[in-house]
Amino acid sequence: MDFGVPSHPEPSDPPEEGFAANAGEPLAGGVPVAGEEALIEAFKNVFDPEIPVNIYDLGLIYEFDIDEKGGVKVEMSLTAPGCPVAGELPQWVADAAAKVDGIGEAEVTLVWEPAWSPERMSEDAKLALGMI
């Protein structure tokens, strides 16, 4: 599945905490709502272009909730506020989520607290980055 994530964006100013990106439209009635696994798979197709590990394994997705109508709310962070794609990455996540069959509207909110740290990374991410 192509999630349409650009590979080399231009740098941007860091967004404020609470910055939200939105994508998708309400799910049509009768369409089955996606499960968490499908959404996680979409998150794993989004990469920070400077780090060769997906945002889910990096631990940038803090939490997400899929409602009974297929809407999803996501809280995510970044490795650092000065990340060159800080203003774009939440939109990439919203776009990827909204493209999942069974997901309607997606809202991704950027949070800075708690601050991201390498302890949030999966073992696979740490291995890929030579941290273990």
Q: How would you portray this structure in words?
A:
The structure is a single chain. The chain is α+β, with helices and mostly antiparallel strands and 132 residues long. The protein has a single domain, classed as 2-Layer Sandwich (GMP Synthetase, Chain A, domain 3). The protein is 18% helix and 15% strand. It is built from three helices and four strands. It has helices at residues 36-43, 89-98, 123-128, and strands spanning 20-23, 61-66, 72-76, 106-110. Strands 1-4-3-2 form a four-stranded mixed β-sheet. A hairpin with a 5-residue loop joins strand 2 and strand 3. The N and C termini lie far apart (31 Å).
Uncertain stretches of 5 or more adjacent residues? 1-12
Structural Rg: 14 Å
Structural domains: how many: 1
State the helicity in percent bands.
10-25%
The helix/strand class is alpha+beta
The CATH level-2 architecture is identified as: 2-Layer Sandwich
Strands of the largest sheet, in order across it? 1-4-3-2
* Largest β sheet strand count, sense and barrel closure: 4 strands, mixed
Strand content: 15-25%
In brief, what are we looking at here?
With 132 residues, the chain is an alpha+beta fold. It contains three helices and four strands.
